[in-house]
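Quick note —
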Amino acid sequence: MMPATILVVDDEVELERLIKMRFRKQIHARKFEFVFARNGQEALEILSRHRGIDMVITDINMPEMDGLTLLSKLAEFDRNLRAVVLSAYGDMNNIRKAMNAGAFDFLTKPINFEDLLITIDKTVNEVRQLREAIAQLQQAQLQLIQQEKMATLGQLVAGVGHEINNPVTCISGYSSLLNLMVEDLISSIIKDEEKNVSLVEIDGEVEKLGIENGLKKLLDMISVISLSADRLIYLGRSLQVFSYDFPLSKVLCNLHEGIDSTLVILHYRLKYSNDSAGIKIVRNYGQLPPINCFLGKLNQVFMNLIANAIDACEEENNTLIVAGEMLKEYVITITTLISENNQTAIVKIRDNAGGIAADVKPRIFEQMFTTKPVGEGTGLGLSISRKIVEEIHGGSLSCESVVGEGTEFTIALPV
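Predicted structure written out below.
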């Protein structure tokens, strides 16, 4: 656990040395870390730079800004921050003023360091329990919001997939029958010509030849209709695979089907345009056994990672356009393999975009952290993806990135 960071605000220079001596064991054991300020104004400057303060110990009478004024401003930095007043003036009037200003506790000088230690422990525990409770509540709220969004998306996608399949099945079936009928008709015309070739006049020959060519063109059109119907059937099935989920228990699933269904949904973002060399998808699929999982939740992970890779490619492409530099072909490579001991299924999603900056990379899985403009990123995708992979499936999600070369996310799932 990180040491509790305590801001001590007092204009007595000797107090700093005394506190460091009295709490040297706790400081050495990394239980406490002390930060010192000489007045309220200096304390506010420290609080503006240091967001990890757990509690404040402050005197009342100080130059520039007194302790009571400081107490009134602490909530501006952190509503969960707690302050203990340490003053030589222990009359009830000062105690009442301090408590009304928001003090958590009140101690008098000369300092009883045993009482101070007890008060620090009590205050730090209060702050940390409160922060943990709030963090858990926020996390639960965010997960509920995300689950509701995914449930709604899943229902929509499943419904669309079902509605597509019904009419497209009719189109596919009738185009096949129509194809057979036209082939039979062409065959009949050819046989009729062979039987009556001596009786047919030149005009008749031309007329029959036109009908035959027209019927062959009709066959070509029927073939296009049939291929389009097959694509729609595949799309409908992909939508149903993407939304596939059993909330009560895991089931054996094919990860490749989940990845492919995600790519179908994101296909519109991969198309080539006049100002882009496009994004190419390379599938390096290995032999994976069925994985016991919640495929709908893993599809959410695939969606987040592949969409982020597309975002990275588009962002670098736009930068190259603005700079007037030569555009490049972007590639997203999806590799699947089984570990050497056959106990872990591995999915690697790699892009060849600009990579992640060194100061950003340690924070990418933090909840609410995003480098995207306001309105474009929520900071939830990667944090939720890690929870799905690690907490729900007992796997791991990691990232390797080289600036200028690209980024690779690796999902490892127990077989």
